[in-house]
Amino acid sequence: MDRLSAPPFSSFADVSRAVDWALVTRRSVRAFLPIPVPREEVESILDVARFSATGVNIQPWHVHVVTGTMKSRLSAAINEINDDPARSSDLEEPYDYYPREWIAPYVDRRREVGWNLYGLLGIQKGDKERMHVQHGRNYSFFDAPVGLFFTVDRVMREGSLLDTGMFLQSVMIAARARGLDTCPQAAFNKFHRVIANELSIPDNHMLVCGMSLGYADPSCIENSLVTERSPVGEFTTFYEK
């Protein structure tokens, strides 16, 4: 597609409705159908996402796509450690995704989404075993047929994380526009060394996050979770004078 081409719709109103739909209906899906996603479709999504904004066109992201046997092998390697508290507790994150000290309103939002999800699944507060099992589903990509990992060169700085975040959003919106769903997953981060070993990712690359990609399973209750977003007035300040 020509980057200077006119919109493929009769009006910009049609364009905005399509874009708005993809943005608003994008959600973190936590149960997928066993329907394969052709490699050509994944390549098509990445081919569109590569036009994400990036400072001075540095394009710092690299994508590692896992499917089939490789995905299963990687999941097994991670789950073996995740199910061993002694080994799992020794793992370190490649960078601080979340704050080390939570404050309001962020901690309240975090708790709300957690308890809403566990509530849908019938997991009671304090049921650590079922919480562990549910959290462990991250590492099987929630049964999605495609897993993606996003890395950046360690020589890059915080700005490259911003660029990669925009690239991630573009991937998710492009997927949604094709009837696919995603779940971005920082849960993979503490297993970055396991992932790097299994996928032969060079030492100079740092894992940013993982992502599941596929078709949502509408029969699974966890996919009925819809998180709230603050209205524009709560996070925006306009300066007019």
From TrEMBL:
Domain of life (superkingdom): Bacteria
Nitroreductase domain segment(s): 24-215
GO molecular function: nitrobenzene nitroreductase (NADPH) activity
Pfam families assigned: Nitroreductase
Keyword entries, A-Z: Flavoprotein, FMN, Oxidoreductase
Gene3D superfamilies according to UniProt: NADH Oxidase (3.40.109.10)
Keyword match Cell inner membrane: no
EC number annotated for this UniProt entry: 1.7.1.16
The UniProt record lists the keyword Membrane: no
Stored InterPro entries: Nitroreductase, Nitroreductase-like
Cofactors required: FMN
Endpoints of the signal sequence: none
Similarity section: Belongs to the nitroreductase family.
Annotated PANTHER family: NAD(P)H NITROREDUCTASE YDGI-RELATED, NITROREDUCTASE
Protein name (record): Chloronitrobenzene nitroreductase
